[in-house]
Give the backbone structure.
Amino acid sequence: MSAGARPALARFARSAPRVAVLAVAALALAACGGGAEKSESPSATTSASADGGDKPAAFPVTVEHKYGSTTIDKEPKTIVTLGLSDQDAVLALGFTPAGAVDWFKEKPYGKWPWTKDKWGSTQPQIVGERDEYNIERIAALKPDLVIAQYSGMKKEQYDTLSKFTKVVAQPKDHPDYGAPWQLMTQQIGKALGKDAEAGKLITDIDARFKAVREKHPEFATKTLAVADSFEAGKYSAFTKTDPKSIFFSELGFKLKPEIDTLAKPGWNVAELSAEKLNVLDVDRLVWVTSSTEANDRIKAEPLYKKLKVNQEKRDLFVPYQDPDIGAAFSFNTVLSIPYAIDEIVPLLTAVK
């Protein structure tokens, strides 16, 4: 597994064997062809202004990314998303992807409460798993646009896809899986001709975070870490570039820089042995796990029992799914963040 892929898998806080594996059948496109249709949307050439007149068309637009720049001449009608969370911003902007990738056999449609209504009965074609794309399936959908923001897309994959469609790869000047959610939302919004709408989504989410910080100024005095454990004796702490850590930072908490220094270059997770668990002795420790077995195993670790954060009950065990709290702040998108805030803040404030 590549150095880029491993951090991406680690950041979502569990491995496939610990999740109920869903069998993925061959999925057909919806009757509408899975295209990026929008209800009551303006035409591709003009969009309605506030006073009822027309304003210049959004297209063409040029989006810069890791592998150069891509010019999109007109509003895309058939969109494929190749990042784990890319579909959220696309859905939020009124488009429905025709194709998406699977990551942990959890089907990227209709599952999560923050996107269920957006997908409706539409089922995208599964066109790959994680960063392994099925080029033939993608080509068969005849997409106008492929979006790969939260991904580890390689240059050769980009070149192959670019032979038959427009491709907006991951943001430049950031490591794979390391771009802020705001930037990825902006990139997607620009590619879809929805700059203003994307900007409003970002502004609204920023306001939600600000409201929490103002209501809970005590968060700013606390150091927080997010962690997981995949197997006995092995633990993971997430760095400042991981979506989970970013989420809690935007709630107002301080992150622990030592975790970043322990991570391998290019990784967003520091792998810890039991002997290194002292790095997790912070004011608030959030474990995001997928089973009570993992929780019980962590709590039974003798060296963990010695930590003050455990002894003083300042640790918090949050499920990844059922309810989908951990998944929401792991995705950390314009759709999942409101759900995550509503679910996690009461839990944090209950921990004294």
Q: What stands out?
A: The chain has 14 helices and 16 strands.
